[in-house]
Write the structure tokens for this entry.
Amino acid sequence: MSGPTDTDARAQDEREIRAIVDRMFDAWGRGDAAAYHADLTDDADYVAFDGSRRSKADSIRSHENLFRTVLYGSRLTGQVESIRFVTPDVAVVHLTGSVVEGWRQTMRRRRLSRQTMVVVRRDGRWQVTAFHNTRVRPLATSGRMVELGGRFVRWRTNRARRKRA
């Protein structure tokens, strides 16, 4: 009988990383800020939806307040999009998610966010050492502004051109 393969080990690592996300979503639903942050390293960086960068301790305090007020009764919904192993002990995880307010049954599409987590294996377990949250706001080419070559330029639609003529 042979031992576990590299493929088996990688699959186990992915299950453990996905379990972190499940625990975070579950803790959010219970309004438990400490549990939500339990899988973060002590020196983790947490970038919130508003772009603020916080330490783990500051993020816990912020979430405690949010869970008592505007996020009371809310839950997270979403899924892991990808897990990419940079080294055997470091992975980049992308997921999408949304806060669903307590009075809603489903998420509002405009509330969809994408999170990027850097997870590291320390002392035999996977932990989040960096977390970044941002809203999904793709630019539509029919909109007023588009990005071209790293610059934002005004996009003129046929209707706008007709008005000028």
Notes: DSSP finds four helices and eight strands in the chain. Residues 6-30 form the longest helix (25 residues).
